[in-house]
């Protein structure tokens, strides 16, 4: 796996510190409130599990699986729900946890669906934000790192389902996805 990485963009230490900081901020912002954290499968799994360890208020968790990339490095633009939430979100404070916002299509679609289910509030926490990839405008309350326009893998992010278990965020060598 390592030999396919051009450069480590964000190392384990940087990830740990940022996740801690985000967890503290979320704990402060939702103090005295209820909170349901929604993990968007599969990319956000690693980030979400680390993040909730750093949230110091009672929470509920739920999972949703949507997909738009298949085995490509560019979004198909069509977002499919593969697994929906287990519980109703009506009247609840919702925090969507994502690994990356790139074109914005996934989150744009998710926000529309979730807002139509009458939650009390919906906010987004994304570990990475790639502004140069954006096709639709999105407001993201919590962002870990702004990243350059390169295809990234690791810490949950994949290319063709591979590299998710790398403990850092790396830039994938172009020859891997151009070949
Ligand atoms: O802003 P966008 O251009 O929509 O891209 C971001 C989304 O794409 C990736 O998911 P993917 O659909 O590849 O599924 P995965 O999480 O299972 O890898 C990533 O995890 C985000 O959910
Ligand atoms: O840079 C990326 N890497 C992995 N998955 C992604 N989904 C959107 N952008 C990316
Ligand atoms: Mg993916």
From TrEMBL:
Occurrences of domain Phosphoribosyltransferase (ranges): 13-159
Keywords (A to Z) from UniProt: Cytoplasm, Glycosyltransferase, Magnesium, Metal-binding, Nucleotide-binding, Purine salvage, Transferase
Pathway: Purine metabolism; IMP biosynthesis via salvage pathway; IMP from hypoxanthine: step 1/1; Purine metabolism; GMP biosynthesis via salvage pathway; GMP from guanine: step 1/1
Domain of life: Bacteria
GO molecular function: guanine phosphoribosyltransferase activity; hypoxanthine phosphoribosyltransferase activity; magnesium ion binding; nucleotide binding
Protein's GO biological process: GMP salvage; guanine salvage; hypoxanthine metabolic process; IMP salvage; purine ribonucleoside salvage
EC class name: transferase
EC number: 2.4.2.8
Database matches in SUPFAM superfamilies: PRTase-like (SSF53271)
Major subcellular site: cytoplasm
Subcellular location: Cytoplasm
GO cellular component, one term: cytosol
InterPro entries: HGPRT, Hxn_phspho_trans, PRTase-like, PRTase_dom
Reaction(s) catalysed by this chain's protein: GMP + diphosphate = guanine + 5-phospho-alpha-D-ribose 1-diphosphate; IMP + diphosphate = hypoxanthine + 5-phospho-alpha-D-ribose 1-diphosphate
Cofactor: Mg(2+)
Family assignment from sequence similarity: Belongs to the purine/pyrimidine phosphoribosyltransferase family.
Function: Purine salvage pathway enzyme that catalyzes the transfer of the ribosyl-5-phosphate group from 5-phospho-alpha-D-ribose 1-diphosphate (PRPP) to the N9 position of the 6-oxopurines hypoxanthine and guanine to form the corresponding ribonucleotides IMP (inosine 5'-monophosphate) and GMP (guanosine 5'-monophosphate), with the release of PPi.
Protein name in the entry: Hypoxanthine phosphoribosyltransferase
Species of origin: Anaeromonas frigoriresistens
Lineage: Bacteria, Bacillati, Bacillota, Tissierellia, Tissierellales
Gene that encodes it: hpt
């Amino acid at each position: 796996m390592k030999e396919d990485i051009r450069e480590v963009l964000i190392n384990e230490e940087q990830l740990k510190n940022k996740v801690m900081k985000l967890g503290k901020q979320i704990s402060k912002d939702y103090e005295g409130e209820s909170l349901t954290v929604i993990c968007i499968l599969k990319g956000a799994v690693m980030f979400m599990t680390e993040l909730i360890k750093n949230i110091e208020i009672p929470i509920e968790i739920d999972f949703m699986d949507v997909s738009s990339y298949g085995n490509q490095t560019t979004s198909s633009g069509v977002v499919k729900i593969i697994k929906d939430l287990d519980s109703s979100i009506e009247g609840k404070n919702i925090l969507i946890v994502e690994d990356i916002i790139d074109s914005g299509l996934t989150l744009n679609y998710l926000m529309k669906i979730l807002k139509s289910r009458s939650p009390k509030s919906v906010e987004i926490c994304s570990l990475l934000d790639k502004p140069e990839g954006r096709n639709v405008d999105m407001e993201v309350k919590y962002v870990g790192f702004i990243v350059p326009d390169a295809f990234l893998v690791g810490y949950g992010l994949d290319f063709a389902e591979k590299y998710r278990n790398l403990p850092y965020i790396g830039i994938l060598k172009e020859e891997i996805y151009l070949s």
